[in-house]
From TrEMBL:
One of its GO terms (molecular function) is DNA-binding transcription factor activity. It comes from Ectorhizobium quercum. This is Short-chain fatty acyl-CoA regulator family protein. Residues 12-66 form the HTH cro/C1-type domain. Keywords: DNA-binding, Transcription, Transcription regulation.
Length: 467
């Protein structure tokens, strides 16, 4: 009678490849036959408890991580892929997806990789088109655009980094906090020094003196974030670099920006571990300020983390995040959902993210409707960075979180206010918005013929022919 076990073929194969082993090498390490390794990798034989123990002993792997249900995660991701509009005329049932994942795990993984590559190429084509229309020769060489494309293609979710950061968070808690863990694990003393001593640095690692230095004008949330980000470089550099390499960036600047973004991702995941944070967002109905107080994070850090909650089986509301300054410059744009502003927008003056500067620190909500009829719910507020002492300059920016309208009932912000009779009509950008009666329009849309005003001047900036 065959021993009971679990089917972990794709995970076993990935572990073997990550370790650079052949089936014969792994078989020798585990004291079983190469043919049995092959059968387990094809899910034709289960991985028994005895084999799992041998794996853990031979390769020092985390037993619980390895036995986690990988099939359910792949099935969840594949279901998400099949919701892409390109497949909208194909009716694929969840049971069929489960069959594919179980019977043809390599094909399922290939499908996920192909779809990620497809999304990246679609974004790249959009960037080239936008660049050509603006006359700047395209944005292919722009490192910021390259990193945004990289994050958007993955919906700003990196499961390997999230899992590693969550495990590290538990160790930090056992050590009594970030500073204690850094002292115990890396023999680095955390010191807070005034700006004139820091000479333009918020954080500096001094290996010679075995000190991690912080600007003492940073608030507590910012100090913790800087500690967590430095810890990400110290503990998770290999994982961060591997994730960044998937972007195949064309230049060093883009690769460095990607690694910095991923280190910040890890820092947020340490401060707001996935499982605990995902439970909290539901119990507090996505109250950003309340969540920030619970986890000791700022409004912006908390809002940013909300865009990353896409772990299969534990997904939360997919949000779009944007940060702009008073001049309308976009300094951060992340998309965990389907808001099209993630690619070529954010500048519609009718959107409240551009008007909240008139009411600093006051949270403003708004129902939005795009020209194609899609409806969304927006939360916007100003945030500050810098300052911290008299005479120290600070910067005021606005951040907004946006979700699809049907998710709004789960948010505390929509529960306690009446829904307006009509949402605010906005456009992604004037050049691709075809609302004819918009008085806020700054330029005509592509492809529309402008009417002369020899005999008639319309009440909108531009009049257009019907064709």
């Amino acid at each position: 009678m065959e021993k009971q076990g679990v089917y972990l073929g794709p995970r076993l194969r990935r572990l073997r490849r990550d370790l650079g082993l052949t089936q014969a090498h792994m078989a020798a390490d585990l004291e079983i036959s190469p043919s049995y390794i092959a059968l387990m990798e094809r899910n034709q034989r289960p991985v028994t408890a005895e084999t799992l123990l041998r794996l853990a002993k031979a390769y020092k792997i985390d037993f619980s991580d390895f036995t986690e249900d990988a099939g359910a995660g792949i099935a969840g991701r594949l279901e998400g892929v099949m919701r892409d509009p390109i497949f909208q005329d194909i009716d694929v049932l969840p049971l069929e997806i489960a069959d594919v994942v179980h019977s043809f795990p390599a094909f399922a993984e290939a499908m996920l990789r192909l779809h990620t590559a497809y999304r990246e190429e679609q974004f790249a084509l959009a960037d080239r088109g936008q660049g050509a229309s603006d006359g700047d020769g395209g944005a292919q060489g722009d490192p910021v655009t390259a990193v945004r494309t990289f994050l958007a293609a993955r919906r700003n979710f990196f499961p390997v980094l999230d899992a590693a950061s969550e495990r590290l968070s538990a160790k930090i808690a056992e050590a009594g906090g970030l500073a204690g863990f850094i002292q115990q694990k890396h023999q680095l003393r955390v010191r807070r020094l005034p700006p004139d001593v820091m000479t333009g640095s918020l954080r500096r690692l001094d290996w010679h003196r075995k000190e991690l230095l912080l600007d003492d004008t940073l608030d507590m949330a910012s100090q913790n974030f800087q500690l967590a980000q430095q810890l990400a470089y110290l503990e998770l550099y290999t994982e961060i670099r591997a994730a960044a390499e998937e972007g195949n960036f064309r230049n060093e600047n883009a690769r460095r920006l990607a690694q910095r973004s991923l280190a910040a991702y890890c820092a947020a995941a340490m401060l707001m571990p996935y499982a605990a944070f995902a439970r909290a967002v539901e119990s507090r109905h996505y109250d950003i300020e309340a969540l920030g107080r619970q986890f000791g994070t700022s409004f912006e850090q908390t809002a940013h983390r909300l865009t990353t909650l896409q772990k299969p089986g534990q997904e939360r509301i997919p949000f779009f995040f944007i940060r702009v300054d008073a001049a309308g410059n976009v300094s951060k744009r992340l998309n965990g959902g389907s808001f099209p502003f993630a690619r070529h927008g954010g500048g519609c003056p009718l959107w409240s993210v551009h008007t909240v500067f008139q009411t600093p620190r006051r949270l403003v909500t708004q129902w939005l409707e795009l020209p194609d009829g899609q409806r969304f719910f927006s939360i916007a507020r100003t945030v500050s960075s810098g300052g911290g002492a008299f005479g120290v300059a600070s910067v005021e920016r606005a951040v907004a979180l946006v979700c699809e309208a049907h998710f709004a009932e789960r948010l505390v912000y929509a529960r306690h206010q009446p829904k307006p009779a009509a949402p605010t009509p906005i456009g992604i950008a004037c050049r691709i918005c075809h609302r004819m009666n918009c008085t806020a329009r700054s330029e005509p849309p592509i492809g529309r013929q402008i009417l002369p005003d020899d005999y008639r001047r319309t009440d909108v900036p531009f009049g257009f022919s019907d064709s």
